[in-house]
User: Fold this.
Amino acid sequence: MALQFSVNPLVFSSTRNPRILNHPAAVGVKSTDECWTWEERIPPNAVRRKRDPSWRGGFSLGVDLGFSRTGVAISKGFSVRSLTVLQLRGQKLEHKLLEIASKQEVDEFIVGIPKSSEGKETQQSNKVRSVAGRLAILAAERGWRVYLQDEHGTSAEAVDHMIAGGISKTVRQTELDAYAAAKVLERYFASLGQDVELVVPKRVELQNKLTKETLLHYLVTGIKPRCANFEEVVFVSSSRACKKMASLDVARSELALAVLYLNKAEARDKICRAIQYASKFLSNGEPGTAQNVDKTTSLARKVFRLFKFINDLNALISPNAPGTPLPLILLAKSKNALLSTFLFLDQIVWLGRTGIYKNKERAELLGRISIFCWMGSSVCSSLVEIGELGRLSSSMKKLEKELKNTDKYKDERYQSKLQKSNERSLALVKVSLDVVVAIGLLQLAPKKITPRVTGAFGFATSLISCYQLLPSHPKAKTA
Assistant:
């Protein structure tokens, strides 16, 4: 099950149907309520990494709360390691965790919550919820998030890990809690954040702070969450909850989606790209209004891409996803290097076309070299997508064997892999068409790939890019 939650202030400020949810102060809703919901309004880092394996931002702090000792672990990129053990309680503990988070540039806390082997909460769970609630309020003031992750069995796993690593008994006794916190983080990332529970402050201004910090980079889509109030916080889990939204709220939601989409420079660039190649198709290389639109839009797009080469440069030097075959790693790094070079040289081309860079002949030469780099990166991307599709196909076949006696389309793991396969297939189509566009721009086969063909293919890839950036619209569903 994908992570599900909602932080829309309207949900929390309106009347609810009461139902007790494992706590006398809890308030929920009946499962028959019709809801308007939002998916990943504040997506955890595990979900972001699932969407983009090359993503390296957003560090996570794992917390294993105890009666007198609290273990802390850190995750940066794909590296998870134990950090320290704190012998603090109350406000001193909470402020120390915030201090560590600030020093380590963390933007989310993954707090382990005790559960039985049957998945039921224990008496200790309420104490953890109380601490997590207070921490969530302090964290939200800084735009950080707090999640609860089932920690059942993590201490035993930590002991086994330490013994296997040859760690002495004395060190095990002092560092066990930190290693347990690391195991909580490992479980969180291994499950791709599917079962975590978001802790949201009830104060609307803090909810707005959380969404403001997050929605600048991640768009919203609709699914069904569940929420439960605990005095000053709301625990939002991966089940369901919600509230009917008025038609005005729906309009606001739709408008918010459009604003978030258009606020992204990447989205504006792809829209301009669609206009550029549509004009190229109409002009077919002949002078006129369509060709003027093509040229001016092409120049305008270069402004959107200023310093964008840094993104791929960062991906080039970032660590690889564990388990990725070496050929795919080399292809992905080659793609990043070529694309970064293309974007860097493209800035010099822009300087030449604006008259800032006076050597026009060299600018034109660099322009051709940059397009060759883009074509090379597209070829590498297509090979990467083919390789990843092969890996996905293999894992899906293994999963099909496990699910041979059941309906595989109802299995969440199979659905997730199928969705990834569809996304990669679409990406493969796009980068393959981009190779044709590059050949057309370079005029390597002018008789077969005319300006009109180049424009048609470029327009198609632009629409695919726009589609890939689009969020899903919130929909009314029945729980």
